UniProtKB/TrEMBL annotation:
PROSITE patterns: GNAT. One of its GO terms (molecular function) is acyltransferase activity, transferring groups other than amino-acyl groups. Gene3D superfamilies: 3.40.630.30. Residues 13-173 form the N-acetyltransferase domain. This is N-acetyltransferase domain-containing protein.
Amino acid sequence: MTSQENPSAPPEITLRNFNLSDIDDLMVWATDDLVSRFCRWDTYTRKEDAVDYMNNSIIPHPWFKAICVDDRPIGAISVTPNMGSDRCRAELGYVLGSAHWGRGIATRAVKMVMSVVFEELPELERLEALVDVENPGSQRVLEKAGFVREGVLRKYSIQKGKARDLVMFSFLDSDSVI
């Protein structure tokens, strides 16, 4: 039974590259203060700024995907590889429209990435994610996807003008994907 036949079933999701034509869908979550609360970026208030971000950051990014339902972006997920002697590590980031929270979508998207990223980035051995200590929902996403909580990094990053404590999670290439 599909999610269309059973409205309470979680929707099928896909990951794909962003296109500039996705801007209106991106604006749904990029303008939501609930969504951007723990993000490094501020809530978007102007479509022009979001278009610039798509053109200059999202589209040229080596691994930045739209999380889609019926081919419409409801969020995003990215893997940012490190360089040089740190090229064995990459940082995972994700964001999901608040209307889709609590349905397992982010966890499924993370697992989808984990199932392909180590093959697509052959030097990668460790995938990391940093989550604000006050964001238990995102911490649960990573734990359900098989990430290991490594510890709290105190005053690790300035976000929204304040030094924040972040929880470090990791997933190693040798770990099994659930």
